[in-house]
Write a structure and sequence with these properties.
The protein has 372 residues and is α+β, with helices and mostly antiparallel strands. The strands form 3 sheets. Strands 1, 2, 3, 4, 5, 12 and 13 form a 7-stranded antiparallel sheet that branches. Strands 6-7-8-11 form a 4-stranded antiparallel sheet, covered by helices on one side. A hairpin with a 2-residue loop joins strand 4 and strand 5. Helix 1 packs antiparallel against helix 2. It is globular.
Amino acid sequence: MLSQIFTFALGAASVFFFYENSFLIALVLFTWFLSRLFGYSLTKMFEGIGHSEVERQSNISIELKMNVAAILNHDSVSSLFDKLKSGKKPIWRKNAEFKFADKKAWVEQIVENYKKKYKNDNDYTDEKSGVRYVWESVKYNIKNNILWENGQVDFSDSITHEIFIPYEYAEDKEDGFFQDISEGIRIRFLVVNGMIKVQIGNFSKETSPQIYRDGLAVYKTWETITTFSLMYVFQGLPTNYLNLSMYATDSYKKLLSNDPSKDFTKDWKELNAEIANYNYLKTQFAIDSSVSGKFLEIYKKFNGKSLKYLGEEKFIDPYKRKDDDTYYEPGWMKDNSIHYLNNYLSVSIADYKDQKEKNEKYYYTDYHEETP
């Protein structure tokens, strides 16, 4: 309680000094007020200074694949099928008959519609696991903090990709701007708050898996199928591509559901503390490749969280070596790359920022220097 009183006293003091034309004092007090209100650690923020130069030198390749077949067989799609099958208006289109009584046949038809619409024949089933893979693949490049998607500059500066698969496909029919869940299903991946999420939607109120609040309803429009803990696994991505948003935190959703017992900024404060540590790891490793002390302490925490999240989401590294992710150094820092996949998502990231130096040392030369 005293801490909250002190925080708001700082805010009031900053306003007072502003009207007294003591702008420098007002700025310092206001910055301190914001840091306490939203959970920023000023010390950690200043420790991370220098990461902007690291980001300017970024040269990263990211390939993301989502398995359309496995996503459509997820339990959340079963729930959608049951609601569409019920025929209640306005869930299903007016004067249209829902033709499928069997979910398996319905999913199979949607997969075929996807393959036809997006001209993708990359369809195979793993004999050992029995998992069917129909990959929707997108490749991103980040060069000098400019984002490229499949070879084209992406001015949204956001790693996100969405497809719309109609329940009934016609080759000569184009997607309408307002096509919703009654006409087809949307599948997307996006990076938000340092995580890669694979989701389905865009749900209406009638098909939503969760209503946060009745009356003037607030409801879930996207259902998350799987989450990849990007910021804990790979600390080389420029911070702005982590797409930080307080509105995408779980504690903010408590506010939407009228739960006054929770601090709706709790997750946001914790995330900002993690981002400060993220910037420190990224910047410190670029400055000094030796890892010890504070770097090691922060990395151990990140590594522990990455193993936890990867285990929960059943991600594996198909190229993992026995000495990867040792207690003293992340595997990605050795060869500047990571590879992970589960049934729904495949993530491959390569960081080429050191390639120029390696070429200068090994490729461009015409001699070999033996080392003892």
